[in-house]
Amino acid sequence: MSDLGPLSYFLGIEVMHSDLGYYLSQAKYIQDLLVRFGITDNRTTTTPMDLHLQLRPTDGTPLEDPTRYRHIVGSLVYVTVTRPDIAHVVHILSQFYSRDSPLQLHAYSDSTWASNPTDRRSVTGYCIFLGSSPLTWKSKKQVDVSRSSTEAELRELATTTSEIIWLRWLLADFGISCDASTPLLCDNTGAIQIANDPVKHELTKHIGVDSSFARSHCHQKTIVLQYVSSELQVADFFTKAQTKEQHRLHLLKLNASDPPPPP
């Protein structure tokens, strides 16, 4: 590790030091935004928003490609770090930011079985969406060796359920309702049947904690397990290599895309 000297620029924020303290500026970041979106010739104004401006979702004509608008608003959100005076107008613009997709959680959970040739442990992964946007994801090798693909999937269902519970609590704190059960999609019918069955299974006694945990939250309606085919299993992305076509398909499902071209 080397000493790079006093901080002067970090993540688009200029840092200047004087006897009075530190001064933060995003002037360069803002200028780069103006150039990128081709609005350098626009006139300046003294306030962020006209006093009598009223915006409604029905005003104007819907954009054929709203991607550019989303990029502009998303960039302005970061500008509020040093310009709190524009926070209100950015909040107003953000109300027209998202697509008409329900703001609800849904998750994908997947696991390989004994895929590691050295220790025969399984690789597991999940991806949780809020609406159409991926919110959190994970890829990890399991600690224990699973004796079947169903066992490996059950362990990952429990892990994903824990993450879902935490996110539901977090969203509730933000005022986002999570009254409905969260769909959890899995491509292993055996794991789904065991998690939905109230009867304890002798064959899964050694993983009783994980299976009981997933089962209890199925019965509490925290989650609802749904089958998804392996071809449409987004969490496959986090557990194994993909063909070119699968990789492209899963990128589309994750809403991953190239940035818009410069104007």
Automatic annotation (TrEMBL):
Residue ranges annotated for the Reverse transcriptase Ty1/copia-type domain, each copy included: 1-49
Keywords noted in UniProt: Kinase, Transferase
Keyword Zinc set for record: no
Keyword Kinase: yes
InterPro entries found in the cross-reference section: DNA/RNA_pol_sf, RVT_2
Protein origin, superkingdom: Eukaryota
A GO term, aspect molecular function: kinase activity
Cross-referenced Pfam families: RVT_2
PANTHER family cross-referenced by the UniProt entry: GAG-POL-RELATED RETROTRANSPOSON, OS10G0432200 PROTEIN
Name of the protein: Cysteine-rich RLK (RECEPTOR-like protein kinase) 8
